[in-house]
């Protein structure tokens, strides 16, 4: 490491017992925003309301001279322009994307990084070229094991200077639903969401969906880059190798009912029937149930879960009714999927604060 980098780049650490959010975490939270939870009402999230996570700076790429290189263990290397990609058969997939660090700021001790509460999620209709069709055009060599995706953004993380890069196992890269996307909700990608081209890996946490793509390299050994080997792994202690973060665990979120207090965001409702609604998703397996509690998670009852409408990779709406009575209440909601994954009350802690799908709780005051 350049000795100067030690002064600008922070190691991963856990917050102290009583340590509040730091100025560095506030700076991250002011750049990288969540989905306002009332926007869970939209089937497809309007782009400005979709969550945003950018490790370094948003690149400013000129589509006229931008090219995508396809190299490595392939029969023929390719160099594709945006027009070349647009000329190929396109597909559109509705995808719920969630940051692997969603829920991190609720953990104790708190891993110090982007301090998400529960809003690091959004659903978009991504249009582009199936990755497989481009890999087949290049011709993948026997012996290839992974595909490495490189973005145009550059930065430093824990002293390691790097381009944002992720490796994806070849079997996952060749799945039908994996896209090289040039449009979001029918319009060119916004700069912050990866213009002109990003990878979309339906069902996987956000870190896999590499933005501002410039190169795709087919490799014959597992990729050891920072974002795979160091960053996105679940570990209980700093010195263990940990497990890679991959597919999204089930989560249900509630549109906070009633109306909010400005400063505290605490919810206020009036007595009587309150319609509860929200969204639920899993990138592992189809959902089997969503359950709601109005007594802080002591008892749960089933909510109505809408069908997926053919959108396997998108969230599903759920709803339930609640007879609110004067006083303080805590609502809670949880989802489970066909693989038997559900949402824990606690116990999902790891040093990076990844794949933490704790039950969503919303305190509500009911007026008399
Ligand atoms: N090139 C590049 N791709 C990236 C990132 C990044 O910093 N650089 N962030 C990743 C992470 S951690 C997430 S959660 C998603 C966020 O995608 P969004 O901002 O479009 O919601 O992008 C992923 N792709
Ligand atoms: Mo993320």
Ligand roster: the ligand Nc1nc2c(c(=O)[nH]1)N[C@H]1C(S)=C(S)[C@@H](COP(=O)(O)O)O[C@H]1N2, molybdenum atom
Order of helices and strands: HHEEHEEHEEHEEEEHEEEEEEEEEEEE
Average pLDDT over all residues: 97
Number of helices: 6
Specify Rg, calculated over alpha carbons: 21 Å
Tell me the total number of β-strands: 22
What would your notes on this structure say?
The chain has six helices and 22 strands. It has 368 residues and is mainly beta. The protein has two domains: 242 residues, Sulfite Oxidase, Chain A, domain 2 (Alpha-Beta Complex), CATH 3.90.420; 116 residues, Sandwich (Immunoglobulin-like). The strands form five sheets. The chain has a six-stranded mixed sheet with strand order 14-15-22-21-17-18, with no helix packed on it. A hairpin with a 2-residue loop joins β7 and β8. Ligand MTE binds next to β5.
Summary of the model, kept short:
This protein is mainly β and 368 residues long. It has helices at 5-8, 23-31, 82-86, 131-138, 170-173, 226-231, and strands at residues 68-72, 78-80, 91-98, 121-130, 146-157, 160-169, 179-184, 187-188, 198-200, 213-219, 233-234, 243-244, 251-254, 259-260, 267-269, 272-281, 287-293, 301-302, 304-305, 316-324, 327-337, 360-366.
Which helices and strands appear, and what pairs or packs with what?
Blueprint: H1 5-8, H2 23-31, E1 68-72, E2 78-80, H3 82-86, E3 91-98, E4 121-130, H4 131-138, E5 146-157, E6 160-169, H5 170-173, E7 179-184, E8 187-188, E9 198-200, E10 213-219, H6 226-231, E11 233-234, E12 243-244, E13 251-254, E14 259-260, E15 267-269, E16 272-281, E17 287-293, E18 301-302, E19 304-305, E20 316-324, E21 327-337, E22 360-366
Parallel strand pairs: 1-10, 15-22
Antiparallel strand pairs: 1-2, 3-4, 4-7, 5-6, 5-10, 7-8, 7-9, 11-12, 13-16, 14-15, 16-20, 17-18, 17-21, 19-20, 21-22
The protein binds the ligand Nc1nc2c(c(=O)[nH]1)N[C@H]1C(S)=C(S)[C@@H](COP(=O)(O)O)O[C@H]1N2 and molybdenum atom.
Domain Moybdenum cofactor oxidoreductase dimerisation: 272-364
Cofactor: Mo-molybdopterin
Domain Oxidoreductase molybdopterin-binding: 55-226
